[in-house]
Inverse folding.
């Protein structure tokens, strides 16, 4: 069996140690796995959603918040869940490129919506509208660092500073917020970062990582008069705020003009060099990078970047996936609006009644759509949140060229795919693309369906051959394949 290797679109097609194409699949330890399609988990909001936040209540429950350019919402239980308006009186007007950033401090959920609205606050347990935090800055970025609420790229006291980091008093009491943001009161203060341009990201925790257009800084609590120390870790930066996804301040994934990187708290390690960097630069619509979003998949070891391809004017239609445990990439082609991490508030039996009989359900009752409380990868489409829990997307795999008979042409008479499943409902077809010389255009055979023998019967000659697979329906692993071929003459 020839195993399906890593997807390496930056490598030459001939004798590449991997795949030419790996569409609508997730990397697996052995080969690839299917990608579930989208299933709505919320009603429509009427506008493009711009961020999610998960609130944790004292009783162990979770509440999902989301928002768009003019409102904040709580996602209620149901299938799909209703969106209950939790906006302040009068709503909001976010900038065209702004998103909602959420962070929980104690029992409060705090939201930053850019430079047009002060920081918002509401109980993390839900049930109450958001409201302005008195005397709080307006900010693009938000995080909790130790016992402080930290904002970055702020408008405060009439002064707009996109290189400023500003933090609250230590252990702020938002029930009496009059001095929470007063500079010099109870350790509340700010710091401007002199080198690196505008701030583009803020990752909190016991310390913080701050990304700027041309630099990355570490922020650490030291107490005393300084309160926090700021150290520039490196000169490379991230000009694309939506490309940042993090497991914490010491595991930050981002996209830079010279490729994809993982910042480990000290330096940035290249993860896309020699694999996808060149391909992505040509595939992506750079003019639509402000619509890029990124998210970690809580169900695995994957980070995904949502972007608009060069085939799209502005709307995201592609997801680049990197499994950081396996070091392998794949690609999803899927119409959507953005990526997020979400939960599905559990649906009651009464709410399930609205969907009709069990025979009418298109999603299993075991799906996260009904279970509730488990963090999951989500996307937005048509103003709705959706989970990856529907039937698998149509997958395509294309191998690198193989010279089956070194120095000679060969005749391919069939391909045996090794694609597993628990049922016989998978629809698998194979093609072969062949050419006699590396400068020739490859000739692609007609698609051949898999037969009861497990073989896709086809016939094509050449010196260099690529196998192309199309997989739909229910399947589990795509492991590899075999060529049924024989050597021919040297001409």
């Amino acid at each position: 069996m020839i195993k399906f290797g890593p997807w390496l679109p930056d490598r030459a097609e001939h004798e590449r140690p991997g795949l030419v194409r790996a569409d609508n699949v997730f990397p697996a330890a052995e080969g690839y796995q299917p990608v579930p399609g989208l299933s709505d988990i919320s009603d429509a909001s009427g506008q493009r959603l711009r961020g999610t936040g998960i609130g944790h209540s004292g009783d162990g429950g979770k509440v999902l918040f989301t928002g768009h350019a003019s409102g904040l919402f709580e996602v209620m239980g149901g299938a799909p869940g209703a969106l209950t308006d939790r906006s302040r009186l009068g709503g909001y007007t976010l900038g065209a490129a702004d998103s909602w950033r959420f962070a929980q401090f104690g029992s409060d959920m705090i939201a930053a919506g850019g430079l047009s609205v002060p920081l918002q606050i509401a109980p993390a347990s839900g049930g109450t509208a958001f409201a302005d935090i008195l005397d709080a800055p307006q900010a693009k970025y938000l995080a909790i660092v130790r016992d402080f609420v930290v904002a970055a790229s702020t408008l405060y006291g009439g002064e707009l500073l996109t290189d400023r980091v500003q933090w609250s008093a230590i252990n702020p009491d938002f029930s009496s917020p009059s001095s929470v943001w007063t500079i010099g009161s109870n350790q509340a203060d700010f710091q401007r970062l002199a080198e690196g341009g505008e701030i583009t990201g803020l990752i909190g925790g016991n310390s913080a990582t701050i990304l700027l257009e041309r630099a990355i800084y570490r922020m650490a609590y030291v107490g005393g008069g300084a309160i926090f120390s700021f150290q520039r870790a490196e000169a490379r930066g991230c000009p694309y705020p939506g490309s940042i996804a993090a497991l914490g301040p010491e595991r930050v994934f981002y996209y830079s003009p010279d490729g994809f990187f993982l910042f480990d708290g000290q330096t940035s390690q290249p993860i896309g060099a020699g694999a996808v960097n060149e391909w992505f630069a040509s595939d992506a619509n750079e003019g639509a990078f402000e619509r890029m979003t990124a998210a970690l998949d809580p169900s695995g070891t994957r980070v995904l970047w949502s972007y608009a391809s060069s085939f799209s004017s502005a709307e995201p239609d592609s997801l680049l996936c990197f499994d950081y445990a396996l070091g392998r990439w794949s690609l999803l082609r899927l119409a959507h609006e953005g990526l997020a991490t979400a939960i599905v508030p559990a649906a009651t039996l009464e709410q399930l009644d609205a969907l009709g009989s069990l025979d009418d359900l298109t999603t299993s009752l075991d799906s996260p759509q009904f279970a509730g409380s488990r963090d999951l990868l989500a996307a937005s489409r048509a103003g709705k949140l959706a989970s990856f829990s529907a039937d698998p997307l149509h997958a395509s795999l294309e191998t690198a060229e193989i010279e089956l008979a070194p120095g000679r042409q060969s005749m391919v008479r069939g391909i045996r795919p090794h694609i597993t499943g628990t049922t016989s409902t998978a629809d698998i077809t194979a093609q072969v693309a062949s050419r006699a010389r590396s400068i020739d255009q490859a000739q692609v055979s007609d698609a051949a369906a898999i037969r009861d023998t497990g073989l896709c019967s086809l016939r094509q000659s050449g010196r260099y051959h690529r196998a192309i697979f199309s997989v739909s329906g229910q399947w589990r692993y795509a492991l590899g394949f075999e060529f049924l071929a024989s050597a021919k003459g040297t001409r």
